[in-house]
Write a structure and sequence with these properties.
With 300 residues, the protein is an alpha/beta fold. The chain has ten helices and seven strands. It has a seven-stranded mixed β-sheet, with helices on both faces. The longest helix is centred in the N-terminal third of the chain and has 18 residues. The two termini are 19 Å apart.
Length: 300
C-alpha cells in the first residue's frame, strides 16, 4: 500500500459507512448473520480454517467473521488502495488484507499460498463483473476451495421472472420503509468529503491511477448466478436465505474425483447451445445499473 493510516484517522470513516450499508442492503444484519452461519458450518471440522472475503473494502464484515471464528485466518481481498488502507488501520489485527484485482487475471496465487480454502465469501462484490468474467471467477473460486468448501455470495440478485421480480421489489421497499435509521450521508457524499481530505490525497491519487474496474450491473438474475456456479464445477448449488431481492447463494465443492465442470446440480438445467445470448435456459438478462437502493450504491 502506498500510504498507511492510523486507526484514529481511519476509524471515523469506517464507522460512517455502516449506516449506509444498513440502509442500502435489504436486511443486511440478518444477511451477514446467515453468511456467518454458513461459513461456520463449512469450517466446523477445520482446525485452522482459511476464509477469503472478496471485494472486502475496509473489512468490517470480515472482522466480524474473524470474531465469530477466532481460530480462522481471514483474508480480505480488494484492489482499492484507499479502502485497503482504512481496513488495515482499523481491522488489520483480525484480517489479513490482500491487494488484488478480482477478475480473469492472476489474483488467486496470493490466496492459494495458504493452501486450499474452506470458504470464499463475497458481499455485493461480483455483480459488476461481466458475465464471462464472473464465470471465470467462479471457476477460480472452485479451484481455490478444498473438497467440501463453500462459496457464499450475498447480494441483491434479481428474480428472472418479471411478476416475481415485482413482488420481491415490493418486499424490499417494505423493509426499507420500516427502518427507523436513515443515513446522514449517502455513498456519493462520503466519497465527496473524502476527496477533499488532505490526508487522503496520496491514496486517492493511486485509486484514480488504478481505476475502480467495471461499474454498474452485469444484468444476471439469481437463476443465472446459480447456473454459473454449476458450470464452474459445483455439484450442489442453492439459496439458503432471501428477503426480497437480497439473497445468500451458496454451493459446495465436490470431492476431487467426482467433480465435473459444467455438470448441473439438482434442479438445474444443462446449458442449451441452441439459445444464443442465454445461459442454461435462464430468462433474458435485465440491463442497466441497479436501482439506487442497491448495496452497490454503497459498496463494501
Amino acid at each position: 500500500m502506498a500510504q498507511a493510516l492510523t486507526a484514529a484517522e481511519a476509524a471515523p470513516w469506517v464507522e460512517r459507512r455502516e449506516p449506509q450499508q444498513r440502509h442500502y442492503a435489504t436486511a443486511r444484519t440478518e444477511r451477514l448473520d446467515v453468511v456467518a452461519d454458513a461459513v461456520a458450518h463449512a469450517c466446523r471440522d477445520s482446525r485452522r480454517p482459511v476464509i477469503a472475503d472478496l471485494g472486502r473494502g475496509p473489512g468490517s464484515p470480515a472482522a466480524g467473521r474473524a470474531d465469530r471464528l477466532p481460530h480462522a485466518r481471514v483474508l480480505g481481498v480488494d484492489h482499492d488502495p484507499f479502502l485497503l488502507a482504512l481496513g488495515q488501520a482499523v481491522h488489520g489485527a483480525a484480517v489479513t488484507f490482500v491487494d488484488a484485482r478480482i477478475g480473469p487475471g492472476s489474483w488467486t496465487p496470493a490466496l492459494s499460498a495458504d493452501g486450499r480454502l474452506d470458504a470464499v465469501v463475497s458481499t455485493a462484490a461480483l455483480h459488476d463483473l461481466p458475465p464471462a468474467d464472473l464465470a471465470t471467477v467462479y471457476q477460480q473460486v472452485h479451484d481455490l476451495l478444498r473438497p467440501g468448501g463453500v462459496p457464499v455470495d450475498a447480494d441483491h440478485l434479481f428474480q428472472n421472472d418479471a411478476p416475481v421480480r415485482g413482488l420481491a421489489a415490493a418486499v424490499g421497499r417494505g423493509h426499507r420503509a420500516r427502518q427507523a435509521e436513515q443515513p446522514a450521508e449517502d455513498w456519493a457524499d462520503w466519497w465527496a468529503v473524502a476527496a477533499v481530505h488532505e490526508g487522503f490525497a496520496e491514496l486517492l491519487a493511486e485509486r484514480a491511477r488504478r481505476g475502480t474496474g467495471p461499474d454498474g450491473d452485469n444484468g444476471l438474475g439469481a437463476r443465472e448466478y446459480a447456473e454459473l456456479l454449476c458450470k464452474a464445477g459445483f455439484p450442489a448449488v442453492g439459496t439458503v436465505w432471501q428477503c426480497g431481492h437480497s439473497v445468500v447463494l451458496t454451493a459446495v465443492r465436490g470431492e476431487e474425483a467426482g467433480v465435473e465442470r459444467g455438470r448441473p446440480g439438482p434442479g438445474l438445467s444443462r446449458p442449451s447451445a441452441a439459445r444464443p445470448g442465454r445461459d442454461c435456459g435462464a430468462a433474458p438478462r435485465t440491463s442497466g445499473r441497479r436501482p439506487p437502493w442497491s448495496e452497490r450504491a454503497c459498496p463494501e
